[in-house]
Amino acid sequence: MYTKVMELNYWSSTEAKSATYDDQKKEWTVVVHRDGKDITLKPKQLVLATGMSGRPNIPQFKGMENFRGDQHHS
């Protein structure tokens, strides 16, 4: 829901394999592995937001223990 409301392009089950910046071209080259193949991207910006350095801040809401779908949080 968050990604839809914020109009974000979200890929789950995707592994970042490499990210390099070319100073002369002023561009990033990012390689990700998704759906069994490598994909090369050329984004204008690169945001590193892995969340690995802190504890998850998962919101609590009434009835969440009964929800059977996927739960994602930012």
Describe the structure.
With 74 residues, the protein is mostly beta strands. It has a domain at 2-48. It has one helix spanning 2-5, and strands spanning 15-22, 27-34, 37-41. A 3-stranded antiparallel β-sheet has the order 1-2-3, with no helix packed on it. A hairpin with a 4-residue loop joins strand 1 and strand 2 (27-34). The model has no long low-confidence stretch (mean pLDDT 86).
Quick summary of this structure?
The chain has a domain at 2-48. Helices cover 5% and strands 28% of the residues.
Low-confidence runs of at least 5 consecutive residues: none
Total E-strand runs:
3
Summed over residues and divided by their number, the pLDDT gives a mean of 86
Radius of gyration from CA coordinates? 16 Å
Number of helices: 1
Distance between the termini: 11 Å
Biggest sheet descriptor: 3 strands, antiparallel
Shape: elongated
Percent range for β-strand residues? 25-35%
Instruction: Give me the secondary-structure category.
Output: mainly beta
Helical amount among residues, as a percent range?
under 10%
